[in-house]
């Protein structure tokens, strides 16, 4: 069996708002929305990869808060794992620097107003359920 390669996704939160990022590439994903993130490099901790990916893709300094339970298969051999995260004090606001052409902060009532990538939907549902139960420190 091929070893899974972890792809980290960030449920970047601002209060109860979740950041959604619209893909600009590759063509088959363009126009769909996702949680920002990317592949974990060999020898890298997933949490460190998440911070690095947010810096590269959005130009922000973020801190990981907690793992969202579950993992979701992507095309083999990739597997999505999601963490909640927040901007560090003094961080610049997110900008679509790489792989995305638009960002939106979505309140819970707006979460389903964008067409999410299918593989992100279960993770987004988990994050929405966590928001409904209240914030965690």
From TrEMBL:
Domain Nudix hydrolase: 3-128
Enzyme Commission number(s) from the entry: 3.6.1.55
MF terms (GO), sorted A to Z: hydrolase activity
Record keyword Nucleotide-binding present: no
Catalyzed reactions: 8-oxo-dGTP + H2O = 8-oxo-dGMP + diphosphate + H(+)
Enzyme class (EC, first level): hydrolase
Cofactor(s) demanded: Mg(2+)
Homology family: Belongs to the Nudix hydrolase family.
Protein name listed in UniProt: 8-oxo-dGTP diphosphatase
